[in-house]
Specification:
419 residues, alpha/beta, Peroxisomal Thiolase, Chain A, domain 1, 2 domains, ten-stranded mixed β-sheet, 21% strand, globular
Length: 419
Amino acid sequence: MIAPNRASQLPDDQRIVITGIGLTAPNGNDWESFRQSLLEKRSGVKPYEIRYFGETLAGVCDFETTRYQKKKEVRRGTRAGSVGVYAANEAVKHSGIDWDNTDKSRVGIYIGVTEHGNVETENEIYVIKGFDYDTSCWSHHHNPRTVANNPAGEIALNMGITGPHYTIGAACAAGNAGIIQGAQMLRLDECDVAIAGGTSESIHTFGIFASFNSQNALATHDDPAQASRPFDVDRNGIVVAEGGCLYVLERLSDAKARGAEIYGELVGYAMNTDATDFVLPNPQRQAECIQMALRRAGLEPDQIDIVSTHATGTSSGDTQECAALRTVFGNCQSTRINNTKSYIGHAMGAAGALELAGNLSSFRDHVVHPTINVDQLDPECDLPGLVLNEVQESKRVDYVLNNSFGMLGINSVVIIGRV
């Protein structure tokens, strides 16, 4: 029997559950194929070339952009919008909801993003450079492409949703932040269905590669599949990735009423801020964020079965998060700790939502996917419960805790329970 949590004591119309999952990742274009790639240790990182910066490595998605959009719509919109449209439609289809008879004014869209508009601005500047910087060549599509709400707005236009839509700018904590916002809006009765999570088009801007490179934080490796290596002593930086993962969230009462299959319940969450540095993380604040989420869920650390880490493959980021985890879970013998970026790289605003999806299947099969590419564990990252290189079976998987941290010191944690 699942251990009790605080959310289970709430009335069903205040309990928030996941009823649909739609995603595209560098190693899978739906929840099942993504999970299978993780269990089979298949990386989605490959050689990649982008103008000005040149050859590098990236996590690149290969989904059918015209499955839910016309070619003209793809050209007019953005890559982040296309990722979002694909993931949202897949999530709704996966949920089994009667979409044709759903009141679209009661559907909300809450999309976490790291940034938006850089890709489109770089593209326009590249074009006008060929016309001696004549701004009359600037596309009239630029403004709707670059407004911050674009990815959520493209989903609304595509699906005919007339409820609230907006993006949540939360750096690399954004995927979790989108889920948290969706849950809060359901509890406030602002919507009956929330499409929530995160999207990223980061690999299409040369600036992000150049910036990480100038920080000596961009991963390199002779074998692309081994470039993303959190916790390994020889890790040398981040692999930038694109992707998206969106969830259909509903109140438990509504999900029960329509006989929906439930993939997990949001039983706890927290967000806080380091307020100490632009880039360097603060392990004390990260630990406090995890502890706040546990308190809200009414759970003890040893009740968490899987911790999905944020670890990006940078020296300081990995060791600081491990210090935070040691503070909270250092005495937990049954808690398993893994990482998904080792397969796909860092999908920025989509990272947290994708990494959560990679672990939700464990409620069913009791299998924990490993962190791959750890040839020699950094002693500062040595934690009890680390799952390295090979899958592990667990007798119990009732709760998954998902960490996502970002620049400017923003931290987010969500805890999902088995229903």
